[in-house]
């Protein structure tokens, strides 16, 4: 049904679902317009509204009104496109909340048993939970680069962590696309794609406002002595002397709430890449308290000089996730208070899988990845499959689950479609708006990832239910059938030479040479952010 319609036509039909207009000329001076449900034209009209035509209005004008309404009826009945741009304010606000290093199964609605996440669970109850969403990479910066540019890591500008990589002026970010469509654009949290000193600065890529961190090392700290607000340092003098007075997450969260309130009367894109629950393992006492004493704990020092370790690592981590959840709840409460929630699409996801290495025991204790193998820093499912929840009342079916395979480079074209504007032509992403609203969704032929470490290039491909990983440029290929082996336990590469040949060629064609960035300038050590 409606498979012949374009995605924009589907959006228009959804926006006006149930609208029926009936006209009757009661007298030459009276028009009665009866509307059931929400008006097609983007304004609320009472169920039975009488509109009196002034006596001075000519018959010609009356007939123009009748003709306009009649054409609207015909447009709806014939399933023609009603452009969202034709109704000012009709395009939804977009809120994208991004967690940092949150595992696939660290949210209750994805199977978490020990950490309480009531607000995220409610978000899923009121919206759609995706089971096969993939991050842009297995680490932070390239994952965010794919999100911003719509390009996978074989093409996106920033393909590895480190402040020496950043967006160039010619790189088009999602905020630029939405700003041109009339959206106010704000970012709150960790940027990681450039600093105030280079071309990757977020205000050069479509953001009207940014509050939080630019450099990813700065974002490692929860009690820094300053944050950034656009071009200006936002000082936190209470944290000086290594005091724990003002938690960076809370400061960022406050600014995100202010942005939403300040822009309640116009369309906005609010991007909130929180740093929770990335290590350091530290959170204010009120978030730890519900978990203290619940489990047997052993101190877990941070091996990095200048970083805060945890006396109770399980309680600290659980508290960080719960504080993240609380912030999501406060955002939703504000949207409802401002009467914005029905015309706001809210997305929640994570930039990659949970922290391994020294903190792997914490991830394992909470079964952070459920049945998935691997952690942050690996192309196994546990490193790149992430939660994705989407909510849009009346448009996205509540309490629904979607198995569509999507990736971070799909967000740019999806946001462009929601905004009724065009995405750049040369991107790798596919809009998944049809999957959100119950339309016919185009599927990817494949998903591709890569990560260079020195001279070595590791690569991964998902093609249908097949998942291939090559850890070294000249190394052997691993192949898994995710339909029968979600945990990637049995390498079947030896039995499927045809698949290996096809994927090997694909890995070669999808990789384009990375930019040669100059060495990073300045110091980015703990002492530069904490004192």
Which strands sit side by side, in order, in the main sheet? 9-8-7-6-10-4-11-12-5-13
Q: What is the gyration radius calculated from CA atoms?
A: 25 Å
Largest sheet, strands/sense/barrel? 10 strands, mixed
Amount of helix:
25-40%
Folded structure, characterized:
By secondary structure, the protein is an alpha/beta fold. It has two domains: 65 residues, no CATH class; 347 residues, Alkaline Phosphatase, subunit A (3-Layer(aba) Sandwich). Helix content is 25%, strand content 20%. A ten-stranded mixed sheet has the order 9-8-7-6-10-4-11-12-5-13, sandwiched between helices. It has a four-stranded antiparallel sheet with strand order 14-15-16-17, with helices on one face. Helix 6 packs parallel to helix 8. The longest helix has 25 residues. It is globular. The N and C termini lie far apart (62 Å).
Short description:
The chain has 531 residues and is of the alpha/beta class.
Structural key phrases:
531 residues; alpha/beta; Alkaline Phosphatase, subunit A; 2 domains; 10-stranded mixed sheet; 4-stranded antiparallel sheet; 20% strand; globular; disordered N terminus
């Amino acid at each position: 049904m409606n498979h012949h319609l374009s995605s924009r036509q589907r959006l228009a039909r959804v926006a006006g679902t149930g609208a029926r207009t009936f006209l009757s000329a009661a007298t030459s001076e009276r028009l009665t317009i009866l509307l059931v449900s929400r008006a097609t034209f983007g304004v609320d009209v009472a169920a039975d509204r009488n509109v009196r035509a002034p006596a001075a209005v000519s018959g010609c004008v009356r007939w123009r009104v009748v003709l306009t309404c009649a054409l609207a009826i015909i447009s709806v009945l014939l399933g023609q496109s009603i452009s969202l741009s034709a109704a000012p304010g009709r395009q939804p606000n977009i809120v994208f909340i991004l967690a940092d290093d949150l595992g696939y199964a660290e949210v209750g609605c994805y199977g978490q048993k020990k950490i309480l996440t009531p607000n995220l669970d409610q978000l899923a109850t009121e919206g759609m939970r995706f089971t096969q969403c993939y991050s842009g990479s297995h680490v932070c910066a390239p994952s965010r680069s794919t999100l911003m540019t719509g390009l996978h890591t074989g093409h996106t500008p920033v393909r590895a962590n480190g402040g020496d990589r950043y967006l160039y002026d010619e790189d088009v970010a999602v905020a630029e696309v939405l700003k041109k469509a009339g959206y106010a654009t704000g970012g709150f949290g960790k940027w990681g794609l450039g600093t105030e000193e280079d071309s990757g600065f977020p205000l050069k890529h479509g953001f009207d406002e940014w509050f939080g961190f630019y450099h990813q090392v700065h974002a490692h700290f929860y009690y820094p002595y300053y944050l950034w607000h656009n071009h200006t340092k936002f000082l936190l003098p209470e944290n000086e002397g290594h005091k724990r007075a003002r938690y960076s997450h809370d400061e960022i969260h406050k600014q995100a709430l202010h942005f939403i309130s300040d822009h309640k009367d116009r369309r906005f894109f609010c991007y909130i890449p929180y740093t929770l629950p990335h290590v350091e393992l530290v959170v204010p006492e009120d978030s730890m308290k519900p978990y203290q004493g619940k489990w047997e704990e052993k101190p877990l020092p941070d091996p990095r000089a200048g970083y805060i370790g945890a006396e109770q690592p399980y309680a600290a981590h659980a508290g960080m996730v719960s504080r993240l959840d609380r912030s999501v709840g406060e955002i939703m409460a504000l949207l409802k208070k401002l009467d914005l929630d029905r015309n706001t699409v809210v997305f929640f996801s994570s930039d990659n899988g949970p922290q391994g290495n020294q903190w792997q025991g914490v991830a394992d204790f909470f079964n952070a990845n459920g049945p998935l193998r691997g952690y942050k820093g690996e192309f196994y499912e546990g490193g790149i499959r992430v939660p994705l929840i989407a909510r849009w009342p009346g448009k996205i079916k509540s309490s629904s689950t979607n198995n569509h395979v999507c990736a971070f480079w799909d967000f740019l074209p999806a946001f462009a479609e929601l905004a009724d504007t065009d995405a750049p032509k040369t991107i790798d992403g596919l809009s998944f708006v049809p999957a959100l609203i119950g339309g016919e969704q185009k599927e990817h032929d494949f998903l591709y990832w890569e990560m260079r470490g020195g001279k070595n290039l590791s690569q991964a491909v998902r093609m249908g239910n097949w998942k291939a990983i090559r850890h070294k440029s000249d190394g052997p290929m691993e192949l898994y059938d995710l339909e029968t082996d979600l945990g990637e336990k049995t390498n079947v590469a030896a039995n499927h030479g045809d698949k290996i040949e096809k994927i090997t060629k694909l890995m070669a064609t999808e990789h384009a040479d990375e930019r040669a960035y100059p060495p990073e300038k300045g110091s980015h050590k703990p002492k530069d952010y904490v004192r």
